[in-house]
Design brief:
Elements (H helix, E strand, L loop, with lengths): L13 E8 L6 H16 L5 E7 L4 H9 L3 E5 L25 E5 L3 E3 L14 E5 L7 H10 L6 E3 L25 E3 L2 E8 L6 H15 L7 H4 L3 H11 L2 E3 L8 H6 L9 E3 L12 H13 L10 H24 L2 H13 L4
Parallel strand pairs: 1-2, 1-4, 2-3, 6-10
Antiparallel strand pairs: 4-9, 5-11, 6-9, 7-8
Length: 350
């Protein structure tokens, strides 16, 4: 089992929390959570705690694995929007911490790659999140959400991640180099969200999501982004909260960042592996990581000019992060743990 690396700490000031739906028989979510927990233990256990909230009851194997890492597994009821949005169960994690620590709510498919010290610079009363990869909610949909439903919007200058023209090494939205960044309603990726200490964001987020879903059901402007997704409601509920700060991209680094080489490997604190590969439930963890890198990252490294150095540089960043993940798989014996989960789940249900 790997060891925790020393480093500057945020003493007992942060809870990293993810919500795992164990009702799903696809073991990719368990696989992702194993990798998440291993990365947290190696890089962040000296400055935070990890809680895995399990929808559908806890799992003894998962509890045993987390116990070895001094992390916690807790049972969690499905959320009230479970009837139309399975992803909305993550909102169950947006509850205050009992010890008044800030809560970093993350999806299962993130991996911690370094310490989280930079989060302490985000104002204590703000909710912080990064821009979404694409603008899946249209201007017309935002107008209906605002004008017809009366939900608040926050407008900020930003580009979505996959269209973000940043110079290498910059991670703030304000660093866009074209000088004409459009002002838009914020649309955020809900895979990594930092909440203020003591703040309970569940009710407002859930209520906004149900209002948006109910309005667009059967509407000509209906789309998945306003029907089942939680992200439009995250934006409006944060607007209702009022205090918002951009979460630096290095804390929610997705394949769009790798394609453009927006951060050096040693500054990427949280990699967010959105998307999946074919037949992932049949692959071991290392093979799944390799397939993911080939499909989403290495095959799509973006080179705006015929510059071999830039292509090599971006590829080096991507391979460095991939190798860190493969080291976690090896050092924490994650293939064995995944094999045990698969064996347990293949037994006939009583």
């Amino acid at each position: 089992m790997g060891s925790t690396e020393p480093g500057a700490a945020i003493p007992a000031a942060l809870v990293c929390r993810t919500v795992l739906d164990l009702r799903c028989r696809d073991d990719k979510y368990i696989s992702q959570t194993l990798l998440l927990a291993a990365g947290w233990h190696r890089h962040c256990a000296h400055q935070s705690v990890l809680e895995v909230l399990c929808v559908g009851g806890t799992d003894p194997l998962l509890s045993a694995f987390l116990d070895e890492l001094s992390a916690t597994s807790l049972s969690c009821e499905p959320g009230p929007n479970d009837d139309f949005s399975l992803s909305s169960n993550k909102i169950q994690g947006a509850t205050p911490d009992w010890a008044a620590r800030r809560v970093l709510l993350v999806d299962n498919d993130v991996c911690f790659l370094s310490a989280l010290d930079g989060l302490a610079q985000i104002p204590a009363g703000s909710i912080a999140a990064s821009e979404a990869g694409n603008l899946r909610v249209s201007t017309e949909q935002w107008e209906l959400i605002s004008r017809t439903l009366g939900l608040p919007l926050l407008r900020r200058p930003f580009h979505p991640l996959n269209r973000r023209p940043l110079a290498r090494g910059q991670d703030q939205v304000s660093a866009c180099i074209d000088g004409e960044t459009p002002v838009r309603p914020i649309y955020l990726n809900s895979g990594v969200v930092l909440f203020p200490a003591g703040h309970d964001h569940r009710n407002q987020w859930l209520a906004h999501q149900r209002m948006i879903h109910s309005y667009f059901r059967g509407h000509i402007e209906r789309s998945e982004a306003v029907d089942a997704s939680d992200q439009a409601a995250l934006a409006t509920s944060i607007a209702a909260h009022g205090a918002f700060d951009w979460l630096p991209l290095r804390f929610n680094y997705r394949y769009g960042g790798f394609r453009h080489g927006l951060e050096p490997a040693d500054r990427i604190a949280i990699a967010h592996l959105t998307g999946d590969v074919a037949d992932s439930h049949t692959l071991d963890m290392a093979a799944r990581i390799e397939a993911y890198w080939q499909k989403f990252i290495l095959s799509k490294i973006d080179v705006p000019s015929p510059d071999t150095f830039q292509a090599d540089h971006r590829t080096d960043i991507a391979l460095s992060v991939r190798n860190k993940l493969l080291e976690l798989v090896r050092d924490y014996d994650l293939e064995r743990w995944l094999s045990r989960f698969r064996s347990a789940r293949s037994r006939p249900q009583r």
